[in-house]
Amino acid sequence: MTQMAQEEIVSNTKTVMQGLEALRVEHMTLMNNLAEGSKNDPDKMEIVKRNMENIELGLSEAQVIVMLFAHLQNIEAEKQKLRTQVKRLCQENVWLRDELAITQQKLQASEQSVAQLEEEKKHLEFMASVKKYDEIQENEDNLEKSRTDPVVELFPEDEAEERNNMSPTPPNQFANHANAGYEIPARLRTLHNLVIQYASQGRYEVAVPLCKQALEDLEKTSGHDHPDVATMLNILALVYRDQNKYKEAANLLNDALTIREKTLGENHPAVAATLNNLAVLYGKRGKYKDAEPLCKRALEIRENVLGKSHPDVAKQLNNLALLCQNQAKYEEVEMYYKRALEIYEMKLGGDDPNVAKTLNNLASCYLKQGKYKEAEMLYKEVLTRAHEREFGAINGENKPIWQVAEEREENKLKNRENTPYGEYGGWHKAAKVDSPTVTTTLKNLGALYRRQGKYEAADTLEDCALRSKKEALDLVKQSKVLGVADDNKRQKSGNSKEDNEDHNKRVHK
Fold first, then answer.
1. pLDDT tens profile 337-383
2. Which residue in 123, 136, 138, 177 has the fewest CB atoms around it within 10 Å?
3. Other C-beta atoms lying within 10 Å of the C-beta of residue 231
4. What is its main location (predicted)?
5. How does DSSP assign 219-267, residue by residue?
6. Residues near 362 by beta carbon (within 8 Å), at least 6 away in sequence
7. Total Cβ atoms within 10 A of residue 209
8. C-alpha dihedral, 320 to 326 to 328 to 332, nearest 10°
9. φ, ψ for residue 484 (rounded to 5)?
């Protein structure tokens, strides 16, 4: 009713405007006639002028009414649009509340089972440690098969940093590296984190529809060829990859690559990130020849944009080296690893974890070629640097763990008892050998010693790695329990000494 009244007012106003316009024309004619007449009548001229002023005033007011009506129509349209958005937000809020309630219920159930799972894990680790010393050494062929070199095992792709990375990608790295060189809008970051949370829980039935709905909304509002659409395509591709749907993931990444090249330029860092992710995906499928040119192009972009000495360039070199290593291109592999080492040591310093990782990768390349001496030197370099960071320069009384292991190997026939483990058993804890890279180095060097027949040295390093891992897990468990009693600590320390003595007896039995 109100809307119809407004329309009638405006229609009548327009009619009045037409009439006033006609009157204004007539009065203009009268004024001209009076001005040209032989008898000048001032009274009539004054009356005509007053009428003209009233007509002009009426026309102005009528125009204001018409403009006000148009403004009210725009306000009403905007209000309807806002009401629709509020309604949609309310629906999304209700859905998120339901999801939060379900997640809280699952969290409570998980917390109840933590204690039981920790006990089971502790028992399994104990059984594994016992089994380790009872196993017969496998032949070199089986050992070689067990030492695979999966692509980007130590250096995952960029968006993945976002399962951090690609087995499943851990959420922290996934989010950090999702779009190198491209700022993700806040609304997409929130959705991104929600998707990663669901994917990390294995709830793909929620994560995939959420991605698809967001992708559909973005394409409607921004069009298909938009950087935000490319971001969502990358996220959905990573979710598919974690489900081993490699074909679907590759199609999405290729689509995202096309969009980013078109909208951001062929030499943009985000293009390099997508190229790297696509190369990693091909590498996981064993398509190393297809992956290599993509990785090289990503390297070229990063060199041009970031400079040839940037740490991200070193990371790309590691990925390229791993791809070439799976194709037995060992000369190229050594060149890429050595260049990556130079960059890391120059930009991040020799103590940076990436230096130790790259040294391990280069040693793996040497092992593939049968260059055992070169590999051994690199493993020792990693362990020596870790020791020097904690205890200073090496001397006769300050020895790294590999030197202790070799001395035990040399003295095994002279002194069956050897130096007790207690004299060096705390080294791995103080020198942070429980870090993944150094623990891996201990295992690798131990395996190399075993290949050379140095079983006493191998047992020393492998036992150190095993104990460092076990103690790291125990420390994590203790940190979760408040008010641990002192007698429990003393009992644990006593048990560790008894375990060391029992192991020495078994080794020298």
1. 999 999 999 999 888 889 999 999 999 999 999 999 999 999 999 88
2. 136
3. 28
4. cytoplasm
5. HHHH-SSSHHHHHHHHHHHHHHHHTT-HHHHHHHHHHHHHHHHHHH-TT
6. 334, 337, 338, 341, 378
7. 11
8. 10
9. -70, 130
Amino acid at site 212: K
Q: How far is CA 235 from the centre of its chain?
A: 10
What end-to-end distance do the CA atoms of the chain give, in Å? 103
Cα–Cα distance, 468 to 337 (Å, whole number)? 28
Q: Cβ distance 295 to 323 under 8 Å? A: yes
Percent of the chain having pLDDT more than 70?
72
Q: Count Cβ atoms below 10 Å from residue 115 Cβ, excluding itself.
A: 9
Q: Are 360 and 400 in contact (CB under 8 A)?
A: no
Instruction: Tell me the CB-side half-sphere exposure of residue 44, using CA atoms within 13 A.
Output: 11
Amino acid symbol at 151: V
Q: Are 464 and 402 in contact (CB under 8 A)?
A: no
Cα gap 169→165, rounded to integer Å = 3
Interval 250-272: pLDDT, tens? 999 999 999 999 999 999 999 99
- The answer to whether the beta carbons of residues 179 and 257 sit under 8 Å apart is no
Q: Which amino acid is at 453?
A: G
- Mean pLDDT confidence for 406-431: 59
Spell out the long-range contacts of 289-293 with Cβ–Cβ below 8 A and sequence spacing 24 or more.
289/327, 291/151, 291/323, 292/320, 292/323, 292/324, 292/327
Answer whether 162's CB lies under 8 Å from 238's CB.
yes
Residue 144 in this model has a pLDDT that exceeds 70: no
Task: Give the C-alpha separation, 70 to 220, whole Å.
Answer: 29
CA distance 458 to 502: 18
Q: What is the C-alpha separation between 312 and 308, in angstroms, rounded?
A: 9
Rounded to the nearest 10 degrees, the angle between the axes of helix 353-368 and helix 372-391 is: 160
Cβ proximity of 342 and 352 under 8 Å? no
Q: Is the pLDDT of residue 212 over 60?
A: yes
Residue in 119, 113, 111 with CA at minimum distance from that of residue 473: 119
419, amino acid identity: T
Q: Dihedral of CA 495/499/502/508: which sign?
A: negative
- What is 125-188 written as a DSSP string? HHHHHHHHHHSPPPPHHHHHHHS---TTSSS--STT-----SSSPPHHHHHHTTTTTSPPPHHH
Q: What is the 3-state secondary structure (H, E, C) of 20-73?
A: HHHHHHHHHHHHHHHHHCCCCCHHHHHHHHHHHHHHHHHHHHHHHHHHHHHHHH
Q: What is the CA radius of gyration of the chain?
A: 38
Task: Determine the Cα–Cα distance for residues 176 and 169; give it in Å rounded to an integer.
Answer: 11
